[in-house]
Amino acid sequence: MTRLDAQRKLRQHGQTGNWRFKGLLLANLSGTGVSRQDVAKAWPTKPSEYRFLQANPGYSPEQEATRTAIVEEGSEEHHMLSDYADDELEEVDHELHEAHVDRSIQHMLFATSTPEEVDVLFRDQLADVVAEGARQRQMARNGSFIFNADTTEGTITVGEDDEYNYESGSGGIAEGGAIRDDSEDPSTVSWDCKKVGRGARITDEMTRHARIDIIEREVQRLGRVTENDMNRIWLNELVDGANQNHDTAGSDQGVPALNGGVTEVDKQDFMPDTFVSHPEFRGVLFDDSNLVEVNRAGQDAELRERELARVMGIDHLPMTGSAYDSSTNSWSYDTDGDYGAVVYQQEHMWLVIEQDIEIKDYEDPIRDLQGVNARAWVDADYAQTDAAATVEY
Questions:
Q1: I need a surface site. Which of 196, 230, 272, 305 has the fewest CB within 10 A?
Q2: CATH fit for domain 233-351+379-392, picks 3.30.2320, 1.20.120, 3.40.1550, 2.60.40
Q3: How does residue 295 score in pLDDT terms, banded at 50, 70 and 90?
C-alpha cells in the first residue's frame, strides 16, 4: 500500500465520527492494509489537508488545523508530546504545556513508536468516543442541577427558598439588629450512588478485518448505554419523588393538562421551567390544536416539524417509555392513573455524580479493545419535592 491508499482510507473514515480515533486504528490494526508509515505520510498537518472534514458535521476543518493539546508537566501525555512535538513545548501556565496535536501524532507514527507511546494518545481518543456516545443520550444532565459529590453516600442540608422572613407590619430588621438564620425550615438531599456501566462487544472479526467504523460505533455504545442508565435512575426519582399532581380525570389531556401541571407547581411558590414527557403524552400534545396558539403566536412550525422548543415558558425534555422501570408508578399515558409528564423547577432536581463516565485504564487499549468498558457512579434526589408535579391521565 502507499501514502495515497492511506490518505483515501483516512478521508473515507473521516467523513463521520471521531476521525483521529479511526485514524489511529487505521495505523495500528493489522488488517487495515496500510502501515504506520503510510498513515503518517497521509496524516493532515497543513490547513489545506483538513478539507475532507467539511463533510463531517462534528468537526470544523479550520479548528482542527490549529488543534492543540494542553498537558500537565510530568504526565504520560507530557512525556509523549515532549518526544514528538516539532519544538520544545510551550508553557501556557504553571506546569501546563501545549503542542500541536496532529504534528505530534505524525511524528510519533513516523518514529514507529512503542505501543505504550501510541496508547497514551489512543486512550484519550477512546475516552472522547465514549463521551460522544454519552452526549447522544444526554437528558438527565440537561434537566438537573448537577452536584459533583466526593463520596458515594451522603446527606447535605439545603434551605427552603419558598419562605419569607419579612412579616407585614413588623418594620423589618431593626437598625443594628441581628439577621436571623434559624427561621428557615431546611430540607436535606441524600444520595447513595449506584454503579452503572457497560462493556464493549468488539469481536475478533472486527479487529482482524479492521472494521473501523463498527468498532467506533461499539465504543460509542458504551457511552450511550451508561448515559441511558443515568437517565433511568434520574427519571425514576423524578416521577416517584414529585409531591404535586395534576389529574386530568380523563379530559383536556393535551395542552390544558400541561398547564395544570405548571399551575400545581406555581401554587407551591416555585417557578416551573422544565417538563419531561412520555411518548404517548407527546402524541396527545401534538394532536391538540391549542399547541399552535400557545406557541410562537399561532405559528404551526412545531406541528409541522413535530418538535417542541419552549411551551408556556418551559423547556421540554422528551424521554422514552422504557427509561422508567420503577414499580411505584406507571409511566405511560393511556390508562387512568398513568403519569405522562412531570413539570418541575430544574434547580430542585439534583443529579448526583460521584464518578462521571470513564473507561477502564488498560495498559494496552488498542490490543485490549474487546475488554473496554465504561462506568459511572450516580444518584438522583429532589431538594424540594413540592417543586414538581406529575401529569396524570
A1: 305
A2: 3.30.2320
A3: low
